[in-house]
Structures are given as structure tokens and as C-alpha cells.
Amino acid sequence: MPLFKFASTKKVNICVIGDIMLDHYINGSCERISPEAPVQVVDVVADVYSLGGAGNVLKNLQAFGCKGSLISISGNDENSKIVDEELEKITPAFYHMVLDDSRRTTIKTRVVVNNHQLIRLDREDKIYCNDSIANDLFDFFKARLNGLDVVILSDYCKGTLSDKLVADIIKLCNTNNIITIVDSKNKGLTKYKGVTLVKPNKKEASLASGINIVDDISLEAACKKIADDTACKTVVVTLSEAGIAIYHNNTLTKKPTKALSVFDVTGAGDTVIAALGFALASGFEISEACDFANSAAAIVVAKFGSAVATLDEINQLNN
């Protein structure tokens, strides 16, 4: 496969809108079992925070050299201050965070010993934002529309992407010829009608279409159902070790995985959607954009946690 070449003179502008969260890692060591219960005793060495969800999509864009931007909501709590601190570290082109008193900032705490995760604790509120907050987010987005190439909607079903906000964003983007890409955990995708590209994984595609994917025939049928429901131009389905599938112009094609080893799949979907957005904004056709996304995913699944892939790493994989 040839190396991926991006024009250094083209400035790519991508905005991520969706659910931001904190990935909290409690790293430690373990040398004994508790006398109180048959569980491991972890001696804590460090607490590490990083951006997850829509924040991880943004980090992946930054790793590609794209000055991405972010619009989201968080709770009005101490964890939202950590989110701000982490955002400031990566200096996005712009970001807008609405503090919602009715929710907690989503945080996923993982206890890790020797790179092995023992347990994950989630603190979150899965409620969609009210119309007032949706209007705030949309007004901010509309004011910064000029020059945007791609909008990525990162929907972890935590509450940012309400039906109203999604409809307003897609309508505005279509009017201004801006590519829209959706990665959603939602079982139904009809609220994303009019989007350019939908990227589920295999399980999500089965749930969204109501079709059990067991072979290429059922995979194509599921993609067609999603395309019909959303009126999108392209459906891209990540298939884990089986690679990636593309449904475009009523035709299904598959590309094998590039992964040499799989260590941790955390955040791999964020990498794929960021890579697709970056490649399409750079003028790639969908087939080459999926090659790029496939390669980026192969890099991150060989790393621990919500990792990112750089252009150099991706090109080394394909060299």
C-alpha cells in the first residue's frame, strides 16, 4: 500500500460535537489478597486523567496535525475543571463547554495493575440536554461555521446530542456543504437523517438495523437499512479482527484489518471516526479514507488505553 500523503498547504478544519468524558486511571501494584474478602489489594501509585469520548476524537485529530475544535456539555462540578485543564493542554482551535447543573461530568475510573484492568467504575447521568442548552450549543456552532470542512457527531448517549440539536446541526451543515459524520451508540439512527456518513461497529449496525449480521449478505442488508433510515451517502462498519466494510453507491466492499497485534481496543472507534473525518476533509475518496482509518486503528489497538496514532506511525505501518 502506498504511503498516505496529505497536502501541507491545506488547512483542515474539523469540529467535534458530542459527549465528552474523563478517563481516570488508578495505576498501582498488587502483591497480596485482602484478608477481608477474596480480592486484590492495590497499592495506588498514580492517578492519571485523559479526555475520552468526543474528547478522544479531538485528541486523535490533534495527533494527525489537525487543529480540531469541540462543542459539548459537562456537569458543573470538580471533574468539569479537570476536563478544562485537559482541553487546555491540547489547545484546540476553539471549544465550548456548557455547564449543566442537572448532571455529573461523565467519568470512567479504571483500576489498572501491570497494564491489566481490574475493574471499571462509571459515574454519569444519561439525560438529554434541554432546549435552552441545545440552543446555546447550536448558536455557538453557527457563529463558527465559516471554514469548517467536517463536523463529527460523537454520540455516546450521555445527553449532548438531543434530537433538536442534531436536526439543527445537520440542516445547517447540508445547507453549507459541510460533511457530517456520525458515530453513535444509539440503537436507532433515524434522528441522524441527512447525515453524510454513518460509522457503527458490527454490534451497533446489527442493533440499528434490526438485522443479525452473520455473513456478507446480512452485513450488506444491515448497511442498506441504515443507509435508507438515515439517507446517508456512506455506511462504514468496523468489524474488529475482520477489518472494515464500506457501503457506498449501493455496493459493499470490505478491507482486511491492518492490526498486527491487539492489546486494548479502548477508543479505537474514536480513532476511526477522527481518521475518516481528517482524510475526507483532506480530499481523499472514501476507499482511501477507510484505508487510512484502518491503519490508524491498527496502531491504537496495539497500545494501552485511549491512545492516538500519528501520521508517521501510520506511514511506517504501510511502508
From TrEMBL:
Q: Which InterPro entries match?
A: PfkB_dom, RfaE_dom_I, Ribokinase-like
Q: Which GO terms describe its molecular function?
A: kinase activity
Q: Which domain of life is it from?
A: Bacteria
Where in the numbering of this chain does the Carbohydrate kinase PfkB domain appear?
13-307
Query: What keywords were assigned to this record?
Result: Kinase, Transferase
Q: Which SUPFAM superfamilies match?
A: Ribokinase-like
UniProt keyword Magnesium, yes or no: no
Write down the Pfam families for this protein, in alphabetical order. Answer: PfkB
Query: So where does this one cross the membrane?
Result: none
This chain's protein is named Bifunctional heptose 7-phosphate kinase/heptose 1-phosphate adenyltransferase
